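thread from #wetlab-drylab

HS: before we spend reagent money on co-crystallization trials with zinc ion, can we at least see a predicted complex? here's what I'd submit
DV: go for it
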Amino acid sequence: MCYRGLTPFFRFRSFLAELRETRWEKSCLRPRLAGMDNSAATIDWAEITQEAAALLSDYIKINTTNPPGGEEAGAVFLRDLLAREGLDSTLYDAGNGRVSISSRLEASGGAAAKPVVLLSHIDVVPVEPEHWKIDPFSGAIVEDVIWGRGALDMKGMGIMELIIMALMKRHRIELKRDLLFVAVADEEEGGIKGVHHLMKSNPEIFDADFVFNEGAYGFCEFMGRRAKIVGLGPSEKSPCWLKLKSSGRPGHASVPHDSNALLHLVQALARIEAREKRARLTAPVEAMLRTLKSKGFIPEELDLADEQTLAMLTSADTHLRAITTDTLSITGIHGGSKINVIPAGAEATVDCRLLPGTDADEFVAELNELIDDPAIEIEKIYGHDAGESSMDTPLSSLVSTVVREKLGEDAFVMPMLSPGFTDSHAYRRFGAQAYGFTPVMLTSEDLATIHGHNERLSVANLGSGTEILFEVVRRLGTQV
Ligand SMILES: [Zn+2]
């Protein structure tokens, strides 16, 4: 998923040099040993961290750029690693090498509750190699940083989850729920050959209580301040991708008329772009702002329930605006073949992202009303309802406890609403509580590399993130 656009919200100054000097990043990440039971306490995390780094490096070397995807090689790589641990896998082929994988570690003595799913996607977005300092598919580890496309989105988390499966097995941790590892194809192109295919072919892998997936990272700095904030994403915005088709009267460009298809299209786009964008607080964003206020990141005197305050906050910041309004971005205009020919038709693509609670059909009807032009037809080309998971489950407090234990008392968990979408919607549709939770601590510079250039993850972050996620999953799996 795409995290570009976060930067303005966090208004980060570039603290990186300072961070390195003070070794803040290292102290921010240093895990503590509190809260482990005997079986988990024997884990040598330094060794596991090195193992995870080597695996991530190898995984990055498998080019799964989507399009075209070619996830089969990635799935086979994961299958072989799981097999080494004595874990069986199932591969799901949606055709043309679009392969997903699952592996189930069964509860000992029968499951007392539904599974916990560790979800990731195998595919990555394309690169512009000329802008990279290092070959994006080299998986190079330079000065304890693993470089390459997918390091953050999301092969890094895929490896964290695979290591967790391996550790549960190696240390014979007695689970009361099945643990299900799922790595899917085609997330970056909407999941038609991934989760959408699997929902029809193998609905049994969606039968779960809890899911961990991408959708929220941790932050080493926030709003210009050092921080130890770990995001937990119970929901995300829903995509509603539209094609606007205009029709008109063709003709010679030397004799202009009012029924030019391109004119209809441009006017329609101007109308929908100029629509009123009223901010609305959804439960996760309200909880996020309340958390930030309680931690002193937002002034105490600001009344978040006040419409004007909200308007002021959101007008100053593109990220906050994106997570408090239904948005649209015009992403393509196509029409015309020759400078002296008025075309009979033209098209535009518009990427709309809707807040939880906004009805897509009503949203499109509103756009139609604003356009008010019979020459324009709106076609919905893709959309799904992202669904919403609860923040009011034992999982929220468990995550908070583990984060504090591992990162220190000054660390805290913050609910987040992702402006992008993930595969979590598929699990929410089946009734699971699915969360964005990638507990690696990033700077604004790190975040900008996701879908961008020079994507990378430090070895320390990979190790710390694995340890935090492992401990959350271990407690969730053993304490039903
Ligand atoms: Zn992703």
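DV: The first helix runs from residue 6 to 10.
HS: ok that's useful, forwarding to the group
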